[in-house]
Write a structure and sequence with these properties.
The protein is an alpha+beta fold. 45% of the residues lie in helices and 12% in strands. It starts with 6 loop residues before the first helix and ends in a 26-residue tail after the last helix.
Length: 104
C-alpha cells in the first residue's frame, strides 16, 4: 500500500496496466528522468507489484496483476468488517467506555 501512495508510482502502475513500458518510455511520458523512473520501478519490483522482462537491450515492465488483485480484494474485504463488533465509543462517557478504558 505504501508503495502506491506515491503519485508517480501510482501513475506508473496505471500506465503499466495499459501496456508494457521500458524505463525510457515511462520517463518521456511522465516527463521525469530515467534515473527517477528506475528508482520507482525498483521499489515496485521489491514489493512484487511489477516485474521486468528483457527484450534485447531494453527491459519492459508489466504489472503483476495477481498481486494487485490480491491487494484490491484485501481492501474490499475491509469494507465488509462488522462495525458492531466492538460496540460504539461514546466520547462523552470515556470513563464508562469499555474500549477507552481497556487495559489490553
Amino acid at each position: 500500500m505504501k508503495s502506491l501512495s506515491d503519485q508517480t508510482r501510482f501513475k506508473i502502475v496505471g500506465m503499466l496496466l495499459t501496456r508494457d513500458f521500458c524505463v525510457g518510455g515511462l520517463a518521456r511520458t511522465l516527463d521525469i528522468s530515467e534515473a527517477a523512473v528506475s528508482q520507482h520501478l525498483k521499489l515496485l519490483k521489491d514489493v512484487g507489484l511489477v516485474n521486468g522482462e528483457k527484450h534485447g537491450y531494453f527491459t519492459h515492465y508489466q504489472v503483476e496483476r495477481g498481486v494487485l488483485e490480491g491487494l484490491a480484494n484485501a481492501l474490499l474485504g475491509m469494507t465488509e468488517v462488522d462495525r458492531t463488533l466492538y460496540g460504539e465509543c461514546q466520547p462523552r462517557a470515556r470513563e464508562t467506555c469499555r474500549l477507552c478504558n481497556s487495559n489490553e
